[in-house]
From TrEMBL:
Biased composition (Basic and acidic residues): 18-35
Name of the protein this chain belongs to: Integrase catalytic domain-containing protein
Pfam families named among the record's database cross-references: gag_pre-integrs, Pol_BBD, Retrotran_gag_2, rve
Recorded GO MF terms: nucleic acid binding; peptidase activity
Keyword Transferase: no
A GO BP entry: proteolysis
This protein's UniProt keywords: Hydrolase, Protease
Species this protein is from: Platanthera zijinensis
Length: 594
C-alpha cells in the first residue's frame, strides 16, 4: 500500500473492510446510496458544545467525504460516504438538516486555458474552504501538529489533483505534497522566462481591434494579456495600460479617444474602461422596431424592396427617425421604410440629393452638405460608408431636441461660448427656447481652441566653457541701418552665458561669422567648441557648414521644425538685445535707421 493511500485511510478512519465491521460498513453505504444520496449530502459530524450542537460538514471541492454517524449501543462509527455537493462550515441548529450545500464549478486545467486565471480560482475555492494555508508550507501555515498538517495537506492536494485532466496529472503524478505540486505546475505552465515575457509583451503591443470586433471581447483579450504579464511578475503601470488600450482601438473610436484625453494630464484604467463601455452601451442600437427607433410610425404595406439576388423584402411601415450627428446636432429623417429583413439600416444618397443635398468623398470620409453646411458624415467601412452618429430611440429624441440641441445652437451662434458663460445668460433669461442649459462635447471647440502645451524648461547646464554653443539669426529688420545691415547672428556660451554678436547684410554670411567666432574664442580660452545648437534654417544646414562641423568634430543639435522653444536660450537673448537697443534709441530720440 502506498504512503498516500495509508495517509488517506488514516485521516478519514477507513478500515480494511474485512470481517463483521467491514461488512457492516459496506451495508450502510449501500443503503445510503439506494436512498438517492440525500442523507449523504446532508450528513455531518455532530458534537456537543457550550452554545448548542455544532455542525461541521466536510470540505472538499468535487468529491466530498462526509461522515455518517450511526449511534447504537456499541458507540458511534464513522462510515465514509461519497457526496455530490460541498457544505461550508457553520455553527448552529440541532440537526444535520440545517447544513447548507454549496457547489463550486471550476473547469479542469488541460493546458489550454489560462493557467494564471485557473490558479486564482483554485486559490479562491481553497480560501472559501479554509484550506489555503497548505499552499504556504508547513512552517508558514501555523499548523503545529503533524496529524493536522497531514490532514490539511492531503485535502488540498486531492482538491488540486481532481481539478486537473489526465494529461496534466501524468506530468505531476510524482508530487507528494501541496507545495511540490503547486511549484511543479507553476514551473511547467507559468514560466517566467524572458522568452515568454517577450512573447506576451509582443502580443499586448500588437493587439488591435478591427471594426467588426466587439468592444467587450477586445477588452477581455486585453485584460487576459495584462493578467498573464502580472502572473509573470511583470508590472504594467496603470496609465500605460490605459494608453495601450486606447491605441489598440480602430479609427472609428478616434473621436471618443480625443474626448477621453482632452484636458487630462493622467489617465486611470478604470475610468477609461468605464467610458468605453458606457459609450458602447449608449451608441449600440437595439433591434430595429417601430416601437424603439421611430418617433412616429405608421404601419402600412409600403411595397417591396428588390435585392441584388432578385429576392424581395417586404416593407411593413413608414415613419420618422431622429439621429444625433457627429457634431451633436439632432436631425430628423422622414419617410423611413421599415424593412425587417434588411441586415443593415441604409440611407439613400439619391433621396438626399433629390431633397437638395450634395455629397463629396474625401479619403475615407463622405460629407453630406446642404448649401455650405456639412450636416452628415460617414466613414468608409468595406464598400459602404458608416454614419458617424447615433440613433435616438422614441421619446428620448424629443427631450434631446429641446434641451441639448437648443443649447448647442446658441453655443454656435455666440461664437462657441463656454458652458459657464451660457449658464450666466440662461439665468438672466437671455437664451430663448432653452429650458436647461446643457452642452455636450463640441468637436469644433477642441479643434479651434486647442493650444500647444508649455515646454518644460531644461535644467541641464554645461560643465565648462565652449562645451555647448547656442546660435540664432534675427532679421530682416524693417529698415536697414546706416551701413546697410538688416540681420545679426548671436553665439551664446551655455556655461557662462557670454554672447558674441555679428551684424550681417545677408543671412548667407552666418557660416563665415561662425568660423571667425570659433577661431577667436578657442584661442582666447584654450578650449574647443563641442556642440552647436541652432534651428533648421538654410543658413545653418548648408552642405559646407555641415562638412566644416564634421571636420572640426562639432556635433550639431538642430531643433524640430516649428518649435522655436527648443532654441529658447538664443531666442530670449535676441529679444533682450533688441529691447535694450530699442530703449537706447528711444531715449536718445534717434530715428529707426540707427
Amino acid at each position: 500500500m502506498t504512503v498516500a493511500k495509508r495517509r488517506m485511510r488514516k485521516v478519514f478512519g477507513i478500515r480494511n473492510g474485512k470481517g463483521r465491521d467491514g461488512e457492516r460498513e459496506r451495508e450502510i453505504a449501500k443503503r445510503e446510496r439506494n436512498r438517492g444520496g440525500a442523507a449523504a449530502v446532508a450528513a455531518s459530524t455532530q458534537r456537543r458544545s457550550s452554545g448548542g450542537l455544532e455542525v461541521v460538514p466536510a470540505k472538499v471541492l468535487y468529491v466530498h467525504l462526509v461522515a455518517q454517524v450511526e449511534r447504537h449501543s456499541g458507540g458511534g462509527r464513522f462510515v465514509p460516504i461519497i457526496a455530490a455537493a460541498a457544505a461550508p462550515r457553520f455553527t448552529g441548529g440541532s440537526t444535520a438538516s440545517n447544513s447548507i450545500a454549496a457547489k463550486f464549478e471550476i473547469s479542469k486545467y488541460d493546458g489550454k486555458i489560462d493557467f494564471g486565471l485557473w490558479q486564482k480560482r483554485i486559490k479562491a475555492v481553497l480560501v472559501q474552504q479554509g484550506l489555503h494555508k497548505a499552499l504556504l508550507g508547513k512552517e508558514k501555515s501555523g499548523v503545529k501538529k503533524d496529524e493536522e498538517w497531514e490532514e490539511l495537506d492531503l485535502k488540498v492536494i486531492s482538491t488540486i489533483q481532481m481539478s486537473l485532466t489526465d494529461e496534466i496529472m501524468y506530468n505531476v503524478v510524482d508530487a507528494d505534497t501541496t507545495v511540490d505540486l503547486w511549484k511543479k505546475l507553476e514551473e511547467l505552465y507559468m514560466s517566467k522566462s524572458l522568452t515568454n515575457k517577450l512573447y506576451v509583451k509582443r502580443q499586448l503591443y500588437s493587439l488591435r481591434m478591427s471594426e467588426s470586433n466587439k468592444l467587450l471581447e477586445h477588452m477581455n483579450a486585453f485584460n487576459k494579456l495584462i493578467s498573464q504579464l502580472r502572473s509573470m511578475d511583470v508590472k504594467v503601470e496603470e496609465e500605460d495600460q490605459a494608453l495601450l488600450l486606447l491605441s489598440s482601438l480602430p479609427k472609428s473610436y478616434d473621436h471618443l479617444v480625443t474626448t477621453i484625453l482632452y484636458g487630462k494630464d493622467t489617465l486611470k484604467m478604470k475610468e477609461v474602461m468605464t467610458t468605453l463601455l458606457s459609450n458602447e452601451t449608449r451608441s449600440k442600437p437595439g433591434p430595429s422596431t417601430s416601437e424603439e427607433w421611430f418617433t412616429s410610425f405608421r404601419q402600412c404595406d409600403g411595397g417591396r424592396v428588390l435585392m441584388g439576388n432578385d429576392s424581395e423584402c417586404k416593407t411593413l411601415g413608414i415613419g420618422s427617425i431622429r439621429i444625433k450627428m457627429f457634431d451633436g446636432t439632432i436631425r430628423t429623417l422622414t419617410d423611413v421604410r421599415y424593412v425587417p429583413d434588411l441586415r443593415k439600416s441604409l440611407i439613400s444618397l439619391g433621396t438626399l440629393e433629390a431633397a437638395g443635398c450634395s455629397y463629396t468623398s474625401e479619403g475615407r470620409y463622405l460629407k453630406v452638405k446642404k448649401g455650405a453646411l456639412v450636416f452628415m458624415k460617414g466613414e468608409r467601412s468595406g464598400t459602404l460608408y458608416k454614419l458617424i452618429g447615433t440613433t435616438i430611440a422614441g421619446d428620448a429624441a424629443v427631450s434631446e431636441m429641446t434641451d441639448e440641441d437648443s443649447s448647442l445652437l446658441w453655443h454656435a451662434r455666440l461664437g462657441h461660448m463656454s458652458e459657464r458663460r451660457l449658464l450666466e445668460l440662461h439665468k438672466k433669461g437671455l437664451l430663448k427656447g432653452v429650458k436647461t442649459c446643457k452642452l455636450d462635447f463640441c468637436e469644433t471647440c477642441v479643434l479651434g481652441k486647442q493650444h500647444r502645451v508649455k515646454f518644460v524648461t531644461s535644467t541641464q547646464r554645461s560643465k565648462q566653457a565652449l562645451e555647448y554653443i547656442h546660435s540664432d539669426v534675427w532679421g530682416p529688420a524693417p529698415e536697414p541701418s546706416l551701413g546697410g545691415v538688416r540681420y545679426f547672428v548671436t553665439f551664446i556660451d551655455d556655461f557662462s552665458r557670454k554672447v558674441w554678436i555679428y551684424f550681417l547684410k545677408h543671412k548667407s554670411e552666418v557660416f563665415e561669422k561662425f568660423k571667425v567666432c570659433k577661431t577667436t574664442v578657442e584661442k582666447q580660452t584654450g578650449k574647443r567648441v563641442k556642440y552647436l545648437r541652432s534651428d533648421n534654417g538654410g543658413e545653418y544646414t548648408s552642405a559646407e557648414f555641415q562638412e566644416y562641423c564634421n571636420q572640426k568634430g562639432i556635433t550639431r543639435h538642430l531643433t524640430i521644425p516649428g518649435t522655436p522653444q527648443q532654441n529658447g536660450v538664443a531666442k530670449r537673448m535676441n529679444r533682450t538685445l533688441l529691447e535694450r537697443a530699442r530703449c537706447m534709441r528711444l531715449f536718445a530720440d534717434l530715428p529707426r535707421s540707427f
